[in-house]
Amino acid sequence: MRWQGKERFLKRFPGKTRNGKDMGNGKKTAYLGVLLSFALILSYVESLVPFSFGVPGVKLGLANLAVVLVLYRYGWREAILLNVMRVVLAGFLFGNLFMVMYSLAGAVCSFAAMCAFKKTGKFGMAGVSMAGGIFHNVGQAAVAVFVTETAGVVYYLPALMAAGVATGLVIGIAAREVTVYAKKAFKNGEDG
Fold this sequence. Notes:
By secondary structure, the protein is mainly α. It has a single domain, classed as Arp2/3 complex 21 kDa subunit ARPC3 (Orthogonal Bundle), CATH 1.10.1760. Helices cover 73% and strands 0% of the residues. The chain has 7 helices and no strands. The mean pLDDT is 81.
């Protein structure tokens, strides 16, 4: 199947366009559902592949790719909804209640930081994603201090923040490349 132009794509994948036109709630909901499924698949893949960075709790955060894409495509409301649904569903499907609690704390801190950094207009997708990676680990460390009732967890924070920068950079670059490819496909009328 080949792209029949930008207008046809926008009819298939709704939301708000750059000029503010509404593209329909039903299609937008379906598109967000596909992205939620994508995020859950990435969460599952990440749970299967053991990444050992030498620091407990460090993960790549692959599912955050979908959150960054939705944040830039639709806005913060849709992105927070996708983020919370992803954390809750992935936690109960591939983890437990504690995983949901830690992930939700990290996701809230991460999302607040990403929105704040994006709003300044001084950071690209990679910078916004790195801020999200850092603050995700800060949120999880705060919950760990609360749950374990020991401040010793804070000693892991510098390593967790460095890991957040690295993984956030990877996710941000991936999100930027997906966006660039999609724009080129729309501009050239190619099937991606």
